[in-house]
Amino acid sequence: MAMTREELNALKTAAQAKAPANWIRVGYSTCGVAAGAKEVFDVLVDEIKARNMDITVKKCGCVGLCSAEPLVEVNIDGVPRVFYGKVNKDIAHRIMDEHVCQKKLVENHIYEI
Amino acid sequence: MKRILLQDTSGTLKKELRDFYVALNSHLRDNGLNDKAQAVLVADIGIYNKGIVAKVLPEGFVYAGLKNTDIALIVEKTILGGEKVAALALDKKNRQMRIVLRNCGIIDPESIEDYIAQEGYQGLAAALAMGPEKVIEEMKKAGLRGRGGAGFPTWMKWNITRGVKGDEKYIICNGDEGDPGAYMDRSVLEGDPHSVIEGMMIGALATGARNGIFYIRAEYPLAVERIQKAIDVCRTRGLIGKNIFGSGFDFDTEIRLGAGAFVCGEETALIASIEGLRGYPRPRPPFPSVKGLWGKPTVINNVETLANVPYIFLKGGEAFGRIGIEGSTGTKVFALTGKVKNSGLVEVPMGTTLREIVFEVGGGVLHNYAIKAIQTGGPSGGVIPEVFFDTPVGYESLQKLGSIMGSGGMIVLDENDCVVDISKFYLGFCVDESCGKCAPCRIGGTQMLAILSKISQGKGETEDMVKLNQIAQAMQKASLCGLGQTAANPVLSTMKYFEAEYRAHVIDKKCPSGKCASLVSYSINKERCTACGLCARNCPVNAISGDRQSKYTIDMEKCIGCGNCYEVCKFGAVIRQ
Predict the structure, then answer these.
(1) B346 — contact with chain A (CB < 8 Å)?
(2) Does CATH place domain A20-111 in 3.40.190.10?
(3) Which residues 421-480 of B have a C-beta within 8 angstroms of A?
């Protein structure tokens, strides 16, 4: 069945309303995956599950700063939204400990894009 | 709580920054402000060569050229008062503008809801309400030109195909991206697949095509996977199929894989490849818009071109036409690579200068070497020397300089890159990728490459440069398709701008950049040598011998001229001649 314009608009409104408050985006294009985005993504998902937190982790495309992949964008209430670049497993754990839990920015990995 | 970000890139003086950071932290601690502000060292703020740079969040004030004596003022005004310290502030101009990459990195490419939430498929709905004629009118107002290389106006291409009578027409998305160093199409296909599908559907509506084909190279498995998922979900949701949005417009699309031949980016070869034939170009006319895939009228658009289209129908053609410069509207995505600090994709409005792209967006040259030139347009493009870096980027302006916009590859070359070596690389690429059908490209390319190899080995003669020019002109005029016609461009443009360097190779038998292995020799200065042995450990052919007492020497018989020893020596003891 073809979608109608009204259905499209309803979908849009629903999708916009559903936008999560706290989220983490992981650059998951070829450049990100090649640099180790999968590992980082898995760490973030596992940590959030283990801590039972309400944070959505999403796989996204490439924002463009390929030299700093894997890039992780973090938006947590009470902390400015930032990009972390050259993230590995350890940094992913630190993002969870420091940024998400202690609400402190993690040193040396922030990139302004 | 406020955050003070301090930029810690290699461009800043380490000690000064360290002192500033310590002083700032002690100031915060001594005044009991640790719960009011956090000082953070960050990798990059995007401002270079301006001393100590800080950014205060959430306000986003940027301060540059900071000294320890400024700390008290910043803390008092900004941290406690929330005001900007005008004397220290720097206006950070955002050079980038995202149209093609508007959703890349923002949405989940595998979620259609994410795309719809960002006004996805609204452009298509608007276009369907307009009808084909008005769609082409709107595209004319926008002035969008093909982003794949040639820069043909998209509205004209659509209009020609629309004007050809035929019950069956095709629209093809050219995702056969093969220029060395260019990968913006891959990023768009992977990061925002629905925008390309939506653009293709608007193109189909305008031209009268009812079938679309994505021609994507098999080397892009993730792009293929995401486009396939996007097509599947569109089909189940009823976004493609029969009677879309109740308008009576039918459309369906599928993927065909390319085997990664560069020539298959050429329209006629691409069509042959889809038809299951060998990827050979054929003479035109007839043009694909008249007789294309399966002999039917066919329009072929590049990925980036199509990704622009939904935006045009969201914001209007006139609004799009106001971005950029006369004749080149909108933005262009460039894949900035080579010797540049921030390599990656940048999207800037047309008319941005090369200098702004390389030094402001790209952060300048890696390791602070002197910049020599920038290569644009891939193997069909040319090399632009530093003196022309203030040229605003556009289709015509780059052509005037002997280069092209191409698909948007930009490779930054520094003083250690040799122009003969660069043109040899690009020509070698075209020789490898030449399909061999026409003689000028097949034979001309091979002969030019042989001459360039001779020159780089120090066996060049003065008439070689004349010969290069002659063959290049023959190739430009007589080759069958774009590959051969443009293959000589890198050679011609380097010979034009760097003639002295070619002469140095031919007459003095020297490579000024020290890149051509046969023309350089390495030796070790015993007085500077500290006998650390680093060069010997890094020599791939064990040509360096010695010990703590006698120090080290290079055996020229064994040396292959790779330059590893020169690069690793910390004391400048390895001499290159």
Answers:
(1) yes
(2) no
(3) none
Q: What is the pTM of this model?
A: 0.89
Cα–Cα distance list, B314 to A61, B126, B310 (Å): 22, 7, 6
Chain A residues with CB-CB distance to B234 below 8 A: none
Residue B167: how many CB atoms within 10 A of its CB?
7
Nearest to B215 by CA among B236, B196, B241, B187: B196
Residue B10: pLDDT band (50, 70, 90) is low
B112-321: which CATH topology? Rossmann fold (3.40.50)
Contact by Cβ (8 Å): B536, B544 = yes
Interface A–B counts its CB contacts (< 8 A) at 152
Sequence spans of domains, chain A: 20-111
Q: Which CATH architecture has domain B2-80?
A: 3-Layer(aba) Sandwich (3.40)
Q: Tens of pLDDT along B186-224? A: 999 999 999 999 999 999 999 999 999 999 999 999 999
Within the 63-92 window of chain B, which residues sit less than 8 Å (CB to CB) from chain A?
none
| Domain range list for chain B | 2-80, 112-321, 325-414, 419-506, 521-576
Contact list in A for residue B106 (CB cut-off 8 A) is 25, 60-61, 63
CA distances from B530 to B313, B548, B567 (A): 67, 8, 16
**Among B1, B190, B225, B226, the residue to mutate for chain A (most A Cβ within 10 A):** B190
In this prediction, residue B12 carries a pLDDT of 52
ipTM associated with this complex: 0.91
Q: Say yes or no: B58 contacts chain A, CB-CB below 8 A.
A: yes
Query: How high is the pLDDT of residue B203?
Result: 95
> What 3-state class would DSSP assign to B448?
helix
Residues of B (211-250) whose Cβ lies below 8 Å from A: 220, 222-223, 237-239, 241-246
Q: Which two tokens stand for residue B10?
A: 């290699």
Q: How far apart are CA B336 and CA B183, in angstroms?
A: 10
- Most B-contacting residue of A5, A38, A81 (CB-CB within 10 A), to test interface: A5
In CATH terms, B521-576 corresponds, of 3.10.105.10, 1.10.10.60, 3.90.226.10, 3.30.70.20, to 3.30.70.20
Answer for the pair B346, B334: CB distance below 8 angstroms, yes or no. Answer: yes
Other CB atoms within a 10 A radius of the CB of residue B253 amount to 23
How far is Cα B307 from Cα B303, in angstroms, rounded to an integer?
6
Chain A residue with CA closest to B96: the answer is A113
